[in-house]
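Below: protein 1.
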Amino acid sequence: MMGLVLAALVVLLLVLRQPLLVILLAATAFVHLVWGRGQLDYIVEDMWVGLDKELILSVPMFVLCGNVMTRGSIAQRLINMLAAITRPLPGGMAVACVLSCAVFAAISGSSIVTMLAIGSVMYPAMRQAGYDLKFTLGAITSGGTLGIIVPPSIPMIIYGLVTETSITDLFAAGFGPGVLLTVVLSGYSIWFNRRMPTQRFDLAEFLHTCRKGIWALLMPVILLGGIYSGYFTATEAAAVALAYAMFVEIFIHKELRLRDFYAVVLDASKLGGSLFPVLAVALSLNIILIEHRVPQSMVALMQGYIDSPIVFMLMVNVLLLVVGCLMTTGEAILVLAPLLMPVAEAYGFNRVLFGVIMILNLEIGYLTPPVGLNLIVAMSTFKQNFGLLCRAALPFIVLMLVCLAIVVWQPWIAMYLVTGKL
């Protein structure tokens, strides 16, 4: 009975269009009063326990690192180098756009930061080169989504926090699907632009761009090499990435001045100010749910109705695709991951694999209305109609759904670097 009351409360707040923080606070207060210790001041105690983790420091540092690189020239230098490599291909500039998003994603950990950093350079360049408007918008917005699947990924860190999953394993598992998506999007770019003129490979230009971009290219090598070798933790990797980006942009590229750093920190603080209160309340709710064995009750309930792991995974994928249309990735992970992950484990799915599948689903949500963040940001950045952006993203959404199905069908793509087994 009380569960129905809680569900009705959440639905009412959703109908009233309350922010997620208010909904989570109301749900957490209800759970504490009805099933918990009956005192609301325990919410604050659980919030402190939930946030008292060193790993959380990596989130603002990765965000700050992405902002530093967006203000500097690392993105431009990466694009120049990759464009010099792909120029002999049909649609070479489009392929360079996708590859640049993948490489930049291996530094920033954020979809929107990746899209803005690469898109602000590639959009005018591709339009000037004669690329189709819808294709250009679709390539940039879909390429930006690689920011949350190619490690290091901020949503992976959040998933690891709320499910107590190894961040290193999640990063390793994200590498295979990230490569698959990059290859598929690049292949589609070549096919779609197969009639566009190509250019000869210029070795002198390539060597020149390598000399200019070597510091930018070394960054993901140092970052991911340190994580996968076990030399860095995720938090240490974030600190190294931030220090490296600041050093390169201020002292080598000289594109960022120390007095500009205040504005960069201010931008990163705005994101932290919106994320961390929600994260604190969600972790508090997670603690009380675990104490009262709610995930175990959900496992028993689901297994009473669904026998097949395949049917369960199909239902979860549909649920996550719908949720991705209505909630941001961070919000969806905070609300659903603590509940769905134990159920997935009961059906035989590894928690690392389930995290990757969950993030792949929610990655598509960046391109689906009404809460497709990449579409909303692109609308204001590139001054285009929202409907046009939705139509531009459609073929790329289909390609991403195909990649999602392949990973679910062949889980070794994600798990090979974790387990070493095909």
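Below: protein 2.
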Amino acid sequence: MTALGPKSEAALRAAMARLLDGRPERTDGALTIANLAREAGISRATANRAGDLLIEFRTAEVRQRRSSPSALKERVRALEAELRAVRGAEMAELRALARTLAQHIQVLTLQVAERDAVIDGLQDELARSVDARVVPLRRPPRGGG
């Protein structure tokens, strides 16, 4: 509830609008109660009696501070730093994974080379045994002895 006359309240509302819009006429534009009173052309004591209006001003000031260009730029910087950290961690993880996969490929390549060598050896042996004669082994008769 505002304990002010209509003229003082109107002056405070107009001053609040100017300060929040960034177009002060009598102050440096800082969003303070003292500047609000000075901008309205009333005493600080009179401004302090406008409880509801001051709550409204402080709420708008907090909202504006959160969405001010400098606050937004700082938020962007913080998010970019966080993104760089996350990307750095992901890149390190991907590099480690690539090294592991390269090692697996190297092992598999060696195993394939060994398998190919065994196959070549078996094929050579098979080629040499084409002319060979297979002699069956006889079993000794049972019961002899």
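Residues 128 and 134 are 13 Å apart (CA to CA).
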